[in-house]
Design goal:
With about 240 residues, the protein is an all-alpha fold. It is built from 12 helices and no strands. It is found in: Cell membrane.
Length: about 240
């Protein structure tokens, strides 16, 4: 009975995640059209790269005319997949075909769902289930978003320019529960805003990486209390 309940809970969570992914994918496709990029760009990017938040950032930088910054920002954002790959290496199997396919559908969610399982068989099953589901749903949403953006004529009239920051905020909100991550995000945002008026488009986003410096701030140590001194008993008088 417990296994059945857990399976139903997993399917419910995966369904909710898929619905959110569909919506974010649609906003990505629509915002790409709003930026004036060709319709094939978001579709090809989603199939070949499948990088979620990195794609939002990349199309913004591409639209600003800074493709080099788009590539560098994507590489930096996806560098977290290196430790992810080590964590789920046993899940992907030993064949190169499986490893390549598994690495392509690797996301934060697939790794989180897989590592929540106790047995290797369960981890492998849930990894491929979540990864394949998100890949199909994301690309479906992107195509819908492209069609929506092309059909409206003026995507900005629907407020699609707000989909880019809203999508990114939705992607990073779960990570902001951690205090250090929250401090880095606030510091990076402040640096980006500070440099926006003086640097070309795309570079302030790269400068936001300076927010990582707050991790090296000196930590205050709690004051140490002096050790209690032993009080010797008075000597007895003869």
């Amino acid at each position: 009975m417990g296994t059945l309940y857990r399976t139903r809970a997993q399917l419910r969570d995966i369904g909710a995640l898929a619905a959110a992914t569909l919506a974010v994918g649609a906003s990505f496709g629509a915002i790409t059209i709003a930026y004036g990029l060709p319709a094939w760009v978001p579709v090809v990017m989603s199939v070949l790269i499948f990088a979620g938040g990195s794609q939002f950032l990349a199309v913004g930088l591409l639209a600003a005319g800074n493709p080099v910054a788009a590539v560098l920002a994507g590489l930096l954002l996806n560098a977290r997949h290196l430790p992810f790959g080590l964590a789920v290496a046993d899940v992907l199997g030993t064949r190169w075909r499986d490893r390549l396919a598994g690495a392509h559908i690797m996301t934060d969610e697939t790794v989180a769902f897989a590592l929540a399982e106790s047995s290797p068989q369960a981890r492998r099953r849930i990894y491929w289930l979540v990864g394949a589901t998100l890949f199909v749903v994301w690309n479906t949403g992107v195509v819908l978003g492209v069609l929506l953006g092309g059909a409206t004529g003026d995507p900005d009239a629907l407020g699609l320019d707000a989909a880019f920051p809203a999508g990114l905020i939705a992607l990073i909100l779960p990570s902001l529960r951690d205090r250090d991550t929250r401090l880095v995000a606030i510091a990076g945002a402040a640096v980006a805003v500070l440099f926006t008026p003086v640097l070309p488009a795309g570079l302030p986003v790269m400068c936001a990486l300076l927010g990582l410096l707050v991790l090296f701030r000196p930590t205050r140590r709690p004051p140490t209390r002096p050790a209690p001194t032993a009080v010797s008993a008075p000597a007895k008088q003869p």
